[in-house]
Amino acid sequence: MSTPNPDIQPRENILLTALKLFSEQGYERTTVRQIAKTANVNVSAISYYFGDKNGLYKAAYTEPMGCPSDDIPLFDQQDMSLEQALTGLLSGFVEPMKQNELVRQCIRLHMREIIEPTGLWRNTIDNEITPHHQALLTVLKQHLGLDNADDDLHRLAFCIVSMGVHLFAGRDVIEKLCPQLIETEAALDIMLERMVMFAIGMIEAETARRKGRVCSNS
After folding, report:
1. How far is CA 178 from the centre of its chain?
2. CA-closest candidate to residue 94, choices 17, 191, 206
3. Is the distance from CB of 135 to CB of 72 less than 8 angstroms?
4. Which residue, 55, 63, 96, 187, shows the most beta carbons closer than 10 Å to its own?
């Protein structure tokens, strides 16, 4: 049985222990008793804070990194410049990278959920990722002067977000190929600046493409 960190509150201790075990073993192979033993708490404490195994798994899946929809206010504000909006959007991927091992465990758990679904991934798509995507479309429509989101605007939104997703999910690859890009907070801040610059470049290219299409049709 491990010795709990006295600086961690009981609920957080259980949550972080569950995150580690769920990410390493998956939902089915992790038991409530194993979590309780590793966290050095009684099973009743898990019931008190989380209700049951499903409640604990959902908390471990969502709470440490937050939900995509939580980040919407960071970029979907009427008075924001394009650069400010993109910085807010992409910081939602970059800032968690500064939490090191916690991020690894969250990535591992999310990948497990996709491969061994319990239903949370579909729920995440419907209730978290979709509103996040729609909010980004609203920002892009505003800055491109569009009334509606067509297929190319969806493509643009997916391409911009893919930079953050790859940074987040492809951390092991980046650490293998070019670790200096993400090994310090300063390096991650530079990465954020460059990602914003690249995203602006994508938007400018799409704006030029649309203008060229209009000119060719006139």
Report:
1. 22
2. 191
3. yes
4. 96
Q: Which residue has the tokens 């090191």?
A: 100
Both structure tokens of 3: 């010795």
pLDDT averaged over every residue in the chain: 91
Q: List, for residues 76-114, the tens digit of each pLDDT value.
A: 998 999 999 999 999 999 998 888 788 889 988 988 998
pTM of the complete model: 0.83
The verdict on domain 66-217 having CATH code 1.10.357.10 is: yes
Domain residue ranges of the chain, discontinuous segments joined by +: 10-60, 66-217
What's the chain's Rg over C-alpha atoms?
20
Asked if 207 contacts 144 with a C-beta cutoff of 8 angstroms, the reply is yes
Supply the CATH classification number for the domain 10-60: 1.10.10.60
- Short-list 124, 102, 126, CA closest to 114: 124
Tokens for 181? 């890009």
